[in-house]
Automatic annotation (TrEMBL):
Species: Propionimicrobium lymphophilum ACS-093-V-SCH5
Coiled coil: none
Name the record gives this protein: Cob(I)yrinic acid a,c-diamide adenosyltransferase
GO BP term, pick one: cobalamin biosynthetic process
One Gene Ontology MF term: ATP binding
Length: 191
C-alpha cells in the first residue's frame, strides 16, 4: 500500500486534447510551476517550426538564463522538432514522419537518462493520431519511465489508447473563437 507521500510524488502522464484553444498554454503554465520548484523542464515541440517565434520560448529562455546565472529554478531545454503544420502548402515537401521519429528518439534518450522531471511533448497527439509513430511502443516507453519523470502531451485528437493509460486528461472544447469569423491570430494571445 502506498503512503500519502508516495501518492503525492507519483509521476504523472497528463494529456491535454480537444478542439479548443489552450492545450499548449496550459502545459507551458505547468512548466512554469515545475521550473519554480527547481525541476528540469524539457519542451519537445513536434510539428511546429522554429520559424514561428512563440512567446513561451522567449520566456523559457529567460528563465533558463536566470537558472544558469543565479541558480534560481531548474534547467530548461527547448527542442523544435518539426517543420510546420502539414496542412500548409509550403510544407508539402517535408517528411514529418521522419522528423517525428527523430524527435521521439530524442525523448526516449532523455527519458532513459532521466534528464528532466517534466517533459512537455507539444503537439504530440497530432503525431500519434496521424500514425507517424507506433502508439503501442510510445505507451510502453512512457509506462516504463523510471524515476520521477512527469509527461504532458498536448494536441488535438489524442488516441483512445493514450487516454486510457493517462493519469490526467483534460479536453479543451471550443465554444467560440475569432478564427470562426475569419480573424487572424494575435501576438500575445495565440503565440
Amino acid at each position: 500500500m502506498s503512503s500519502t507521500r508516495e501518492k503525492r510524488h507519483k509521476p504523472r502522464l497528463i494529456v491535454h486534447t480537444g478542439d479548443g484553444k489552450g492545450k499548449s498554454t496550459a502545459a507551458f503554465g505547468m512548466g512554469l510551476r515545475s521550473w519554480a520548484q527547481g525541476w528540469n523542464v524539457g519542451v519537445y515541440q513536434f510539428v511546429k517550426s522554429g520559424k514561428w517565434k512563440v512567446g513561451e520560448k522567449l520566456a523559457y529562455e529567460t528563465l533558463a538564463k536566470a537558472h544558469e546565472d543565479n541558480g534560481v529554478g531548474g534547467s530548461i531545454f527547448w527542442y523544435t522538432l518539426g517543420e510546420g503544420f502539414t496542412w500548409l502548402r509550403s510544407n508539402d515537401h517535408t517528411d514529418q514522419q521522419s522528423l517525428a521519429q527523430e524527435g521521439w528518439d530524442l525523448v526516449k534518450k532523455h527519458l532513459a537518462e532521466e534528464k528532466n522531471r517534466l517533459y512537455i511533448l507539444d503537439e504530440f497527439n497530432h503525431v500519434l493520431s496521424r500514425g507517424w509513430l507506433d502508439i503501442d511502443e510510445v505507451i510502453d516507453t512512457l509506462g516504463r519511465r523510471t524515476g520521477n519523470q512527469n509527461v504532458v502531451i498536448t494536441g488535438r485528437k489524442a488516441p483512445k489508447k493514450l487516454i486510457d493509460v493517462a493519469d490526467l486528461v483534460t479536453s479543451m472544447d471550443k465554444i467560440k473563437h475569432p478564427f470562426d469569423k475569419g480573424e487572424r491570430g494575435q501576438a500575445g494571445i495565440e503565440w
